[in-house]
What we know:
By secondary structure, this protein is mostly helical. The chain is 56% helix and 1% strand. The protein has 14 helices and two strands, in the order ααααααααββαααααα.
Amino acid sequence: MKRTFVKVFLFVVGVVSIFAAVGRLVPQVEEHPPVKQAVTPQSTPEELASMGREILHSSGCLICHKDSETGNERGPDLRQAAGKAATRKPGMGAEEYLLESIVQPDVFIVSGYPKMMPSALGPPANLSKAEVKAVVAYLQSLGGGEPTVKVLAEDVTAAKAKGPVNLGKALMGKHGCTACHKVESEGGEIGPELTKVAASREPADIMKKIIDPKAWTAPGFEAGIMPEGMGDAIPEGERREIVAYLAKLSGKQYGDAAAAADTGADSAASLWSHEGVRLGLVIAVFNVVMLLALAMARRDRKEGGES
Length: 307
Ligand code: HEC
Ligand code: HEC
């Protein structure tokens, strides 16, 4: 009996310490997301390069380019951009060329590639000059060199004020749709304009097209250009926002009931991340473990009595 009690006691102490340790770790990991840095004239070359990487990865550039072994090849491999930059245009320095190729891509077209790159100052990237310079710093560091670009105060203040935009519209920029499609008079011209697409297509079909670009081919356009796998890359909630936005541009509604269910799921998710609920969960699990331990102790005692 005494031995059982000691066993149960040690077991409970062990479980409580594990919970305490985990409980201390969890909130620290979850509740301090990294603060997003801004590009400033004071940023060091290393900071510029690392922010440039973030910017490049979130501005739709990788729809056409790659900066690692895997990626897209509609445009040149960006790992070589800095190395080739000095030789692209006679009389133009590498840094100057990189800046021009991102801000005014149509001035010089790399041979063997089509003219399709949108300026990074417009959609979908909508970068400020300071952000473009950070991207150049990243490309320079990718090429193995030291970043030489200098961010000036005017590059920062010249940043376009980004007013509130419709979430669906912003997501079309984030996921690169507007690199190829024009919506509300902004965007590329590789694919059809989408401002009124929902007038002739049902919203559910637009969703289908995002998930499976082979679903149909818009008349007058080449098949196989719209990237496969976008549906997987874009979270379902964001896909819905995009379709709802395109539907609304033609006065249609999309997925009200489904959207309500979505927000239900969302708030459930945020409920679980609430600290009080987490603590409650820990206490509940602790109680269950205690009950199990008691049951075990009782069984042990019974067995002990029998023998
Ligand atoms: C819709 C496809 C597309 C998107 C999106 C795109 N590019 Fe390009 N990019 C190209 C193509 C095609 C070329 C080569 C033709 C040319 O010079 O315009 C190119 C050329 C370049 C070059 C010159 C490379 C060299 O070797 O000379 C750089 C640098 C570059 N892009 C950077 C970017 C950055 C940074 C972004 C994101 C802000 C971006 N691109 C977005 C298609 C794209
Ligand atoms: C690399 C270029 C490219 C990107 C990125 C791209 N598309 Fe497309 N898209 C096309 C082309 C080209 C067509 C026309 C050929 C076809 O239907 O496949 C097209 C067709 C469409 C159509 C059919 C239009 C019609 O009138 O039938 C829809 C809808 C569409 N795209 C939505 C999107 C959305 C939403 C995104 C972003 C999640 C996106 N596309 C990203 C190139 C692109």
